[in-house]
Amino acid sequence: MIRNTIALLPLAVMFACQSPQTDTAATTPASSPDSTNVTATATEGEWVKLFDGETTNGWHTYGQNTVGQAWQVEDGTLHLDASNKQPGSRGDLVTDKAYDDFDLKLDWKISEGGNSGIIFYVHEDTAQYNETWNTGLEMQVVDNERHPDAKIQKHRAGDLYDLIAANPETVKPAGEWNQAEIVSKDGQLDLYLNGTKVVSTTLWDDNWKELVAGSKFASMPGFGTYKSGKIALQDHGNDVWFRNIMIKEL
Fold first, then answer.
1. Residue pair 178/144 in contact by the 8 Å Cβ criterion
2. Of 96, 107, 144, 196, which residue is the least packed, with the fewest Cβ within 10 Å?
3. Which of 129, 113, 111, 112 is nearest to 121 (CA)?
4. What is the pLDDT of residues 66-93, one digit of tens each?
5. What is the domain count for the chain?
6. Has residue 10 been placed in a domain?
7. 92 in Cβ contact with 61 (< 8 Å)
8. What are the C-alpha distances in Å from 140 to residues 161, 189, 218?
């Protein structure tokens, strides 16, 4: 028995030293700590961290070169500290990079009575557009129970803000983490909240133009027209937390 075990040792060592081959796009979830860091150059189909959990690398305040001090990194989260009223400390946070077709995943948690948003296809040109939402589409982040904006149809958590209401509503209460996913590919847009698809639409066609024309964005000629843009986390004046922010270019 001992002799047989010794004879098998070289074979066991050989297999132990071999590294299994894995498909990163297929096996790495958005929240995995082993996914590619934000500073790495991503290839198509590879998950990339937009937030490394320790710094604000890869982000800046809209229209500025740095990140406002109200955005703090705390315990692996990006936290907007709404109590910070210092000049220049506030504003929406945007990625340094623009994206066209993408799959974005992140977790968010809103304060009681709070409001925020995940905005995408943001065209950062402050000479033309003062705000991220002048061009970018928004997946609403809000306390449905307490914030007055949630009383308005198409302004509730998970909605494509002021355009399409989330159906079904799967949001968790203020203070609890929600998992959001935004997938945009060849004009097809799908929003997921806590694992359920809640919005699905087609961008940039005639129906889309009619949808925008019937919304509060009708007077904004750049809204919803850009097919490449930055990702933004909204400063709506209330505390909000984000974590596990990942993107895959499609």
1. no
2. 96
3. 129
4. 999 999 999 999 999 999 999 999 999 9
5. 1
6. no
7. yes
8. 6, 15, 18
Asked if 142 and 238 count as a contact pair (C-beta separation under 8 A), the reply is no
Q: Give 108's Cβ-side CA count (13 Å radius).
A: 27
Place of tokens 């799959």: 103
- The β-bridge partners of 242 are 78, 108
Q: CA-CA-CA-CA torsion for 39, 223, 126, 190, nearest 10 degrees?
A: -20
pLDDT of residue 18: 41
Sign of the four-CA dihedral 144, 160, 84, 74: positive
Residue-wise pLDDT tens digits, 123-132:
999 999 999 9
Whose tokens are 């705390």? That residue is: 74
Residue with tokens 């977790």: 107
Copy the structure tokens of residue 31.
């929240």
Strands 115-122 and 59-61: what pairing? Answer: unpaired
Long-range pairs of 18-25 with CB within 8 A, sequence gap ≥ 24? 25/248
Q: In 3-state terms, what secondary structure has residue 146?
A: coil
DSSP character at residue 8: H
Residue 160, domain extent: 22-249
Residue 13 belongs to some domain of the structure? no
In a domain, 59, yes or no: yes
At 237, the pLDDT band (50, 70, 90 cuts) reads very high
| CATH classification of the domain holding 85 | 2.60.120.560
Give the C-alpha distances (Å, rounded to integers) separating 41 from 28, 32, 132. 17, 18, 25
